[in-house]
């Protein structure tokens, strides 16, 4: 039987450099000034209301226009400590830029994301004196589990408030999805670690990697040893297809594919199939599909169970996929993975339509020959620690109140592991901020002023 056509070095080496360079280059200084001048500096600006972290967008844009990039960076980072990464990956087209009043007047919003990147990149490239100073030491110790956006945002805000923070991270590097889960062309040049190094430079934060909850550390021990615990666990599990052949050669999950590519030292050495099928319709599906094309796959197809208007990936991301040669097929459900000699050779789909809000098969089937099938059908919370099983859950995730408090005493949570969010980096950052202030109040710290108190508690 023929072997699956999965191999590295499908393209000339020089092409990988182009394919995985910055997909959206930054603004030049002149471009940034021109774009900043387009802002109306609205009072009670709708773009601010649309930002989950409440960045004062007119303020930072005005400072760019005044050539005060340090001041612009401060306005961004005091609200969103991951302002640099969010400028690269935040779906601004459905958040701040969608709310921009210029959409109504001119059909083209101010390029808020690119302006935010312009200001934060300038600061990270030449930080100078620290932007923020920690409050007086409180003597209180906080444990943070998970060094993703929610966990590190909580750690940074808690450190600013004067607490000592220890962050426990299961992986070898901090960053969570910022390090392991984003398309490589969205964040180039090791930017995720550069941003985290700046974040940790505030002091008062100890990072311990290769420390997994339920293995090297236990929640019960953390609750006993620390004054408070924040869980920023993310979603460590991947939903199963529930089909025979799911573990055959060539069948995998998009999350691991993206993580492997993110950590690859040589993109040319990453193997990819000639014909790739991605099951799902979210950002992960688009990232996996586009990167498969950039690695040299000749045919890449995203298959989604409903119509494209309801795909979780934004219209912008869908257009990006098509621009990169990805085909999107809708109203189809995977029914079988056909294998030969232990490897995938085709995928069979059932055509479906919607009846009373439910999907029903039409009776028609179709197939695609494929070397690789990547599932991107959602992730799940992994309850690896015994005490996690006692947490109140909702919808398979941790239930929290408006301040991030869980059902367990001394334990807060935020980010993708909690119920009710949109699984956005920018939202996870706000969860971490909210929880840090809630922990601070719960610890009964008395101080003359409450620094950085402006947070959106109702958003948690």
What would your notes on this structure say?
By secondary structure, the chain is of the alpha/beta class. The protein is 33% helix and 19% strand. It has three domains: 26-125, Fumarate Reductase Iron-sulfur Protein, Chain B, domain 2 (Orthogonal Bundle), CATH 1.10.1060; 141-236 and 381-459, 3-Layer(bba) Sandwich (FAD/NAD(P)-binding domain), CATH 3.50.50.60; 239-378, FAD/NAD(P)-binding domain, CATH 3.50.50.60. The protein has helices at residues 13-19, 29-36, 46-50, 57-65, 69-77, 83-89, 96-99, 102-106, 112-125, 149-160, 177-180, 191-200, 219-225, 254-262, 283-295, 315-323, 425-442; strands at residues 6-7, 141-145, 164-168, 205-208, 228-231, 237-238, 251-253, 272-273, 275-279, 299-303, 326-329, 332-340, 343-355, 358-369, 372-375, 379-380, 393-394, 397-398, 411-413. It has a five-stranded parallel β-sheet with strand order 4-3-2-5-19, sandwiched between helices. Strands 7-15-9-10-11 form a five-stranded parallel β-sheet. Strands 12-13-14 form a three-stranded antiparallel β-sheet, with no helix packed on it. Strand 12 and strand 13 (343-355) form a beta hairpin. The termini are far apart.
């Amino acid at each position: 039987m023929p072997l699956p056509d999965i191999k590295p070095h499908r393209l000339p080496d020089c092409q990988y450099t182009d394919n995985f360079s910055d997909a959206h280059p930054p603004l030049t200084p002149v471009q940034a000034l021109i774009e900043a001048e387009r802002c109306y500096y609205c009072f009670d600006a709708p773009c601010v209301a649309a930002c989950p972290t409440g960045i004062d967008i007119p303020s930072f844009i005005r400072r760019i226009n005044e050539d005060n990039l340090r001041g612009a960076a401060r306005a961004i980072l005091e609200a969103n400590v991951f302002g640099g990464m969010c400028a690269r990956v935040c779906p601004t087209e459905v958040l701040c830029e969608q709310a921009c009043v210029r959409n109504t007047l001119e059909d083209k919003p101010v390029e808020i994301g690119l302006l935010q990147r312009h200001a934060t990149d300038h600061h990270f490239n030449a930080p100078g004196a620290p932007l923020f100073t920690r409050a007086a030491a409180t003597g209180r110790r906080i444990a943070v589990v998970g060094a993703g956006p929610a966990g590190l945002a909580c750690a940074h805000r808690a450190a600013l408030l004067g607490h000592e923070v220890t962050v426990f991270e299961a992986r070898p590097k901090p960053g969570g999805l910022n390090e392991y889960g984003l398309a490589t062309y969205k964040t180039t040049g090791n930017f995720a670690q550069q941003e985290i190094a700046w974040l940790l430079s505030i002091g008062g934060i100890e990072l311990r990697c290769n420390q997994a909850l339920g293995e090297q550390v236990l929640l019960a021990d953390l609750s006993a040893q620390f004054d408070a615990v924040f869980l920023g666990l993310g979603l460590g599990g991947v939903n199963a297809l529930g089909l025979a052949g799911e573990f055959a050669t060539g069948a995998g999950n998009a999350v691991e594919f993206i993580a492997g590519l993110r950590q690859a030292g040589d993109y040319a050495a990453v193997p990819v199939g000639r014909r790739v099928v991605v099951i799902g319709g979210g950002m992960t599906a688009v990232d996996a599909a586009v990167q498969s094309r950039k690695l040299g796959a000749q045919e890449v197809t995203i298959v989604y169970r409903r119509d494209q208007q309801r795909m979780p990936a934004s219209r912008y991301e869908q257009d990006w996929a098509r621009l990169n040669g990805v085909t999107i097929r809708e109203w189809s459900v995977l029914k079988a993975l056909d294998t030969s000699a232990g490897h995938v050779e085709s995928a069979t789909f059932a055509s479906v339509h919607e009846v009373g809000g439910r999907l029903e098969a039409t009776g028609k089937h179709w197939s695609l020959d494929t070397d690789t099938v990547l599932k991107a059908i959602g992730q799940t919370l992994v309850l690896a620690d015994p005490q996690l099983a006692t947490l109140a859950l909702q919808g398979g995730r941790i239930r929290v109140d408006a301040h991030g408090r869980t059902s367990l005493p001394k334990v807060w949570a935020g980010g993708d592991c909690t119920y009710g969010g949109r699984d956005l980096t920018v939202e996870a950052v706000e969860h971490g901020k909210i929880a840090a202030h809630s922990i601070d109040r719960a610890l009964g710290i008395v101080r003359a002023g409450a620094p950085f108190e402006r947070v959106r508690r109702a958003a948690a």
